[in-house]
Amino acid sequence: MLRFAPSPNGRLHLGHAYSALLNARIAERWGGRLLLRIEDIDLGRTRPEFVAGIRADLDWLGLRFEAPVRRQSEHFADYAAAREALAQDGLLYPCFCSRGQIADEVAARAARGAAVPRDPDGAPLYPGTCRHLSVEEAKARREQGAPHTWRLDMPAALRSLSEPPVIRRFSPEDGALETVAADPGRWGDAVIVRRDVPTSYHLSVVCDDAVQGITHVVRGQDLEAATDLHALLQRLLHLPAPAYHHHTLLRTADGEKLAKSKGSEALADLRARGVKAEVVRAGLGFRTFG
């Protein structure tokens, strides 16, 4: 079981097309199923026209998906239950720090000559300020309505495991598996529940993959490092772990990866210019799906 899981916060581009077609090829080659998931937890950026555009683009590419299509915004209760399970195990804590406060504290530490470790995306690790709040103080601030995220207490999470988490990688050619050690500690006390919505990408994706019975995840290399954190959450929540393949990213002539935020040409624009879907598929290396 595989899935293609775009976010409707913009229009799909060729990079999305490559990922969707690769998922379809693997599913067809192995006689598996391919599901579509709409990852729309970011309610402030989700637009109905983007959801409709995703369906139109995938239909144009010749891809068909089973109904009903899972939309994350309809399952916040599932993610809340997972959050509560982690909290009950003492593995989450509320964080009341704003981005500005975190930046100031990191800068102050750097000014004192202290090391500033960074996560795989290059952002400074959260210094753990709110991890040291008493239960009473944290509860009082929440009851007063103070905005907060929920962070994973990474040291406590790692101590709770009987053995380190691992990741299974698979070859899209023959399905051969290899197991490698995960290193979730490099993410520090990651945000597991955002301030604006009752979940996060990390929490939602591991819950959804388990609920949908996803056995193989095919996605871009930009999410490869996040798999360390996902492997940890799967262990903490006692969820099955899929095998993963992270494909190379399509890039522009100057080496930049294609991205909605950078205005990469949308599939809808190609379609409007009269470009045929078979030309796009062939250009991406998918003359046929098999």
* Secondary-structure element order, N to C: EHEHEHEHHEHEEEHEHEHH
Examine the coordinates and then state which fold CATH places here, giving the name of the CATH topology of the domain at 1-74 and 251-290: Rossmann fold
Structural class: alpha/beta
Binned, the helix content reads 25-40%
Number of helices: 10
Mean pLDDT: 94
CATH architecture of the domain at 1-74 and 251-290: 3-Layer(aba) Sandwich
**Taking Cα atoms only, what radius of gyration do you get, to the nearest Å?**
20 Å
Q: How many strands, what sense, and barrel or not for the largest sheet?
A: 3 strands, parallel
The count of strands amounts to 10
Shape: globular
Q: For the record, what is the CATH homologous superfamily label of the domain at 1-74 and 251-290?
A: HUPs
CATH class of the domain at 1-74 and 251-290: Alpha Beta
Measure the end-to-end span.
17 Å
EC number: 6.1.1.-
InterPro entries: aa-tRNA-synth_I_CS, Glu/Gln-tRNA-synth, Glu/Gln-tRNA-synth_Ib_cat-dom, GluQ/Sye, Rossmann-like_a/b/a_fold
Pfam family, one: tRNA-synt_1c
Keywords: Aminoacyl-tRNA synthetase, ATP-binding, Ligase, Metal-binding, Nucleotide-binding, Protein biosynthesis, Zinc
